[in-house]
Amino acid sequence: MLNMFGILEKPLITITNIIWSFDRTTKQLQVLLVKRAQPPYQNSWALPETFMRTQESADEAALRLIREKIGLNLSDFYTEQLATFTNQQRTSNERALSLAYMTFLPEMPALKAGYGALEARWFAFSAVQKRYCLSNRQLTFQTAAEASETAYYQALKQQQPDQHLAFDHEWILRLACQRIKNKLNYQPNILLVLGAQFTLKEARMIYAAFLGIKPSEIDNSNFKKTHKHLFKDIGISSSKQIGRPAKLYRLASNKVEF
């Protein structure tokens, strides 16, 4: 809404949440996408969003979104604020700012589309050349190709909505992946998707996905030596398997500092 001086008043504030999980059957990272039920971008796939309500903080709104979309009550231990997105071209109608979060789910629940969504699906995460890809059956989306914000938002106006994620979500997802990749060697919060304990093999799977290589290309001995300050040895796996039982680890800090 504009006042008599042409100054924008009360822009909408949305919470966009990149929700990560890990499929232990396929051994792949997953990202939650929803199919929008209403305009703008009706029938387009998008990252889950909600409007921030008057009586709640952004952190509270991000956790409410998790409750409403997938029925989980999480503490802020599993969330991390990513960035604020304010480019005027990010929405084509009413001005809307986005406070983006990342959530790392320690389990991969079944999905049921909530209010404002026609469908909700887990999309498998992988690296494709210099970009990241989300795939589910015949649907495939990639992170933004443009390296700069200016170039991305200029190209956004020319995109075909049915071939891309809604709004500027491909740019938000690109920055989320960059954040995670840049923190792998000192604060790998993404490993929270593996739950309270994990093997180094599982950790290497996560690292490899962001580095764009195969897990076998990460030498286990070197990985253990260079990352030992990040992990705490908590014992041996009790699951029945052929060969020597795998060692189990957790993140060294009891409370990850975001």
TrEMBL record:
Location of the Nudix hydrolase domain: 27-132
Organism encoding this protein: Agrilactobacillus yilanensis
Protein name per Swiss-Prot or TrEMBL: NUDIX domain-containing protein
Domain NrtR DNA-binding winged helix: 193-251
InterPro entries: NUDIX_hydrolase-like_dom_sf, NUDIX_hydrolase_dom, WH-like_DNA-bd_sf, WH_DNA-bd_sf, WHD_NrtR
Organism placement in taxonomy: Bacteria, Bacillati, Bacillota, Bacilli, Lactobacillales
